[in-house]
Design goal:
The chain is α/β, with parallel strands linked by helices. It has twelve helices and nine strands. The strands form two sheets. Strands 4-3-2-5-6-9-7 form a seven-stranded mixed β-sheet, with helices on both faces. The chain has a two-stranded antiparallel sheet with strand order 1-8. It is elongated. Bound molecules: S-adenosylmethionine. The site of S-adenosylmethionine has 24 residues, from strand 1, helix 3 and strand 3.
């Protein structure tokens, strides 16, 4: 049975209707599954944490490569399927929880102690309705893992992998660039899923940096300023930042920009990560 037939079989056997509000679009393309696993670069000492395993299509391949696979799935119906499907495997742990509420660092710490895994890696075909909160959680919590290999909506992938200051940049582009090296791996058409979503997708790989690419005195301030700069991205940086409490008034911002040789007319979206870091370090 190929992955398409397998998916149809499981869906019929368990009487599953894909839940749209949980972003359930199941992967049915064999090549894409192999490409995700290949690019996750999993070795036999690795712990893999899979977010949203669904029917277990990706899980099945991950289990062949990793020392242990921990899957976090919100939908109880999928838990029953996963338990049945992988009952003979002793290297899987199934957690029925909302990924946004899971303490990943605690899980990894425990696994390091108990099973002696060397590295942890995140792999997923993410539910699109919460892609950004999941990516932000993974990055901001400074998880003890090496990489994140995920399938996400194509437009979001373009934004995450854009160079800060490039035309597709958003606030999240800077967060990604600060914490990771982002790489686009593979474009995936919507026909590779069942049911097919309206949009195309892309697999990306985020390799977590050991050190951030810019030195900044206060990370919280850095992301606060970037947030304000992008909240009203059509405004000049001076106008956008005048709403931010870290600055006294427009004159204060103008003075900083002049000191740093940044044009007064510039918009936040044109600044590099280093420019933002310089602003933080100056105030
Ligand atoms: N990995 C499967 C595949 O590739 O076919 C399913 C991917 S589907 C795009 C997303 C999965 O994430 C679904 O199984 C859905 O139930 C699950 N999910 C949705 N919200 C979640 C959440 N907050 N926490 C954990 N899993 C979630």
């Amino acid at each position: 049975m190929n992955i398409y037939e397998e998916t149809k079989f499981i869906i019929k056997k368990y009487g599953i209707n894909a839940n749209k509000s949980l972003g359930q679009n199941f992967l049915i393309d064999e090549e894409v599954v192999y490409k995700i696993v290949e690019n996750a670069n999993i070795s036999e000492d690795d712990l893999v944490i899979e977010i949203g395993p669904g029917l277990g299509t990706l899980t099945n391949e991950l289990l062949k490569k990793a020392k242990k696979v921990i899957v976090v799935e919100l939908d109880e119906r999928m838990i029953k399927i996963l338990q049945d499907r992988f009952s003979l495997f002793n290297n899987i742990e199934i957690i029925n929880q909302d990924i946004l509420k899971v303490d990943l660092n605690e899980i990894i710490r425990k696994e390091r102690k108990q099973t002696g895994i060397k590295n942890a890696k995140i792999v997923a075909n993410l539910p699109y309705y919460i892609t950004t909160p999941i990516i932000m959680k993974l990055l901001e919590e400074k998880g003890d893992f090496e990489s994140i290999t995920v399938m996400i909506q194509k437009e979001v992938a373009d934004r995450l992998c854009e160079t800060p200051g490039g035309k597709l940049s958003g606030a999240i582009t800077y967060t990604v660039a600060y914490y990771a090296e982002a790489k686009e791996i593979l474009k995936v058409p919507h026909t590779s899923f069942m049911p097919a979503p309206e949009v195309d997708s892309e697999v990306i790989n985020l390799k977590i940096r050991k050190e951030p690419p810019v030195k900044v005195k206060d990370e919280e301030k850095l992301f606060e300023i970037i947030k304000y700069a992008f909240m009203q991205r059509r405004k000049t940086l001076i106008n956008a930042l005048s709403q931010c409490e870290l600055f006294n008034n427009k004159e204060h911002i103008r003075e900083i920009l002049n000191e740093l040789d940044i044009s007064e007319k510039i918009r936040g979206e044109a600044l590099s990560l280093e420019d933002f870091a310089n602003i933080v370090n100056y105030i």
